[in-house]
Amino acid sequence: RFFNKEKTVTERFVLSGLQVRDLAYGENPHQKEAFLFSTNSDNLLALDRFQFIEGGDPSFNNLSDVDRLTQTLIAIASGFQLNHGEVPLMAVVVKHGNACGAAISRIGEPIEEQKPFIIQAMLSGDPEATLGGWVMLNFPVDEQVAILLAEKKLHGVVAPKFSSAAVLKLRRYSGKCRLVLNPALATVGRHNLEFTPIVHPVIGGFMTQLRSRFVPNFRLKPGEVGEIISYHPDNGVGDKQAVGLLFAWGIGSTSDSNSVTIVKLCEINNVWKLLGNGVCQRTRVGAGQLAVDLARRAGHALNGAVAYSDSFFPFTDGPEVLIQAGIRSIFATSGSIRDQEVIDYCRARGCILSLVPDEIGRGFFGH
């Protein structure tokens, strides 16, 4: 506050926080001094509002995973609130900050009946990566849910509530399965979107940027800012595909870029699930191929799935990989000099391509 009042200083960014938690260590065990500071945010999903009720002290990486999970749930919830007026049941598991399993309920479905299916669908996304991951739910963990979660050697479970029976079920050797409580997860939504600047440390200083404020709205009228244009032989994206694209966007836009995310509606239990999340790739086609490979390795059937790309396709090779694998609807941005080639390629193969301008909806994250 003092520096901001200095008349001789043209630009000065001052970051101040109160130390609220000692961490077990930093990103690596030899980085002993690590702490969580609070800026006294009124956001109920601020990281200092999460209570560790079981297990050992969290590390830097543990809290980073909790923060990323929170951002993913906020993104998915915001998309559904904007487009459908309600938030589905959500379950996401991350490994090193990126979703390797996720599932949501269908809007309007009986809630209690879908809980076990959501957990099973989430854990089956990438079974190998899920081992040792962190899970976050926007619904309470009861004994039935805990039994399903206990099948994996998870490092942490975050939820709005835990029953006493659930706590007993999730206890693991050496207290390594941390249970984290935040009741505000039960009402996660657009009101939890964070708009404070992002600060990124660099050698000799730091950079700042505004947070992304884009939430896709498939109900905008032609000509409105943020309009999503869908290209299809029948000229439009259906409600079912739009739901899947919102889900995929929520995951992909909070994963390390470049990312391509594939999700599908499971007809047997009627929940949407993540099939493959191709993150942090150097090429767009590489991200798509990784997402397809991860889904196939896990034994998922890709036919009829939908995909999200966090930026435009510079060539047709990206959509080609996805379409040949069975994807029938893709959400990306426009802005490539070859946009028309990509549009024509998808249209000729019966794949719905939904685009929003890159300067509005690009979803780069985690650079």
In short:
With 367 residues, the protein is of the alpha+beta class. Helices cover 29% and strands 23% of the residues.
Give structural notes.
By secondary structure, the chain is α+β, with helices and mostly antiparallel strands. It has helices at about 60-85, 110-125, 125-130, 145-150, 165-170, 240-250, 285-295, 315-325, 340-350, 360, and strands at about 20, 35-40, 50-55, 90-95, 100-105, 135, 155-160, 180, 200, 205-210, 230, 260-265, 270-280, 305-310, 330-335, 350-355. It has a 12-stranded mixed beta sheet with strand order 3-8-7-6-4-5-13-12-14-15-16-11, sandwiched between helices. A two-stranded antiparallel ribbon has the order 1-2. It has a two-stranded antiparallel ribbon with strand order 9-10. Helix 2 (about 110-125) runs parallel beside helix 4 (about 145-150) and helix 4 (about 145-150) runs parallel beside helix 5. The protein is globular, with a radius of gyration of 21 Å. The chain starts with 17 loop residues before the first strand and ends in a 6-residue tail after the last helix. The model has no long low-confidence stretch (mean pLDDT about 90).
Mean pLDDT: 92
Order of helices and strands: EEEHEEHHEHEHEEEEHEEHEHEHEH
- Which value, in Å, is the CA radius of gyration? 21 Å
Quaternary structure = single chain
| Helix-strand makeup class | alpha+beta
Which features does this protein show?
alpha+beta, 16 strands, 10 helices, 29% helix
